[in-house]
Automatic annotation (TrEMBL):
Residues 22-70 form the FHA domain. SMART domains: FHA. The lineage of its organism: Eukaryota, Metazoa, Chordata, Craniata, Vertebrata. It comes from Oncorhynchus tshawytscha (Chinook salmon). This is FHA domain-containing protein. GO terms for cellular component: chromosome; Mre11 complex. PANTHER family: NIBRIN, NIBRIN-RELATED.
Length: 291
């Protein structure tokens, strides 16, 4: 399945089923763009075939792919990530293939979800990547996948969302809203009244410009999905834009090599010198939830 995801906040997502043809226009068509005077009645034609999506322009003011205007006689094959503009105003979208990641879903639920997605032409994965468009959870818990979905502004929904989406598309009804299928929050560390699971663009910038330093490989592995890798000198410890992820205490620390613990102690002394302190990984997670 393909979707046209609006590039402007508050826009409508349009779902495109495989083996279907869609007319984009202002009224009485499959993809309606009603509040843009530069949209023709039959502005463009979209054709979905298996994993392919083609676009053909038939408008007065034009259809653009990655800022390039299409010729009305030549269909254009689209790829995931392409930016499509219909007309000359605010009808701007990004082409996306539906890739659903699951978290805390049992095996029976995964089989059922995979079967539903097959009807839609979507795909289920167990690993979060930047290509994922949705995260499915029975209840919301603090997991790395949850944090990734929030930071990427991807909807977190219950499995029932895709069941209702299938029904709506088959009956040519408006698709369900993701916020109507948010899972219940089931995490002692979270206050339900203070957590907002809706798309919040400011989350994308939460860690921008910050450098994370890990004192052991285990901590780096847990949070590596959120951050870009790089080599950082210890001199960055004095920077207010550096975040040092502290090591676990108790029995977990006892298993670490003496050299690692010695280095961590030296890092702690440097942080104290600049009146800084290390943070634990759960603080990063909670910061995302409360942004």
């Amino acid at each position: 399945m393909w979707t046209l995801n609006p590039l402007e906040f508050g826009g409508v997502t349009h779902y495109l089923l495989p083996e279907k043809e869609y007319v984009v226009g202002r009224k009485n068509c499959e993809v309606i763009l009603p509040n843009d005077q530069s949209i023709s009645w039959a502005h463009a034609h979209l054709t979905a075939r298996d994993q392919a999506l083609t676009l053909k322009d038939s408008s007065k003011y034009g259809t653009f792919v990655n800022e390039e205007r299409l010729s009305g006689d030549t269909p254009r094959s689209l790829t995931a990530g392409d930016r499509v503009t219909f007309g000359v105003f605010h009808s701007k979208f990004r082409c996306v293939t539906v890739v659903v990641c699951s978290s805390c879903v049992d095996n029976e639920g995964k089989v059922s979800l995979s079967q539903t997605l097959q009807l839609l032409g979507g795909r289920l994965t167990n690993t979060w990547t930047q290509d994922c468009t949705h995260l499915v959870m029975p209840t919301v818990k603090v997991t790395i996948k949850t944090i990734c979905a929030l930071l990427c502004c991807r909807p977190i929904v219950k499995q029932e969302f895709f069941i209702e989406l299938t029904k709506a598309l088959q009956q040519k009804q408006p698709p369900p809203k993701a916020e109507s299928f948010f899972p219940e929050i089931d995490e002692p560390s979270l206050n339900k009244d203070e957590v907002d699971l809706t798309e919040r663009p400011e989350r994308k910038e939460l860690f921008t410009g910050k450098t994370f330093l890990f004192l052991n490989a285990k901590q780096q592995k847990h949070l590596s999905l959120l951050l870009e890798e790089g080599s950082v000198p210890v001199s960055l410890l004095e920077s207010p834009l550096s975040c040092v992820i502290g090591m676990a205490t108790g029995k977990s620390q006892e298993l670490l090599p003496h050299s690692t613990k010695k280095w961590a102690d030296s890092v702690g002394r440097i942080l104290q010198r600049y009146t800084h302190c290390s943070i634990i990984k759960t603080e990063c997670s909670l910061n995302v939830f409360h942004t």
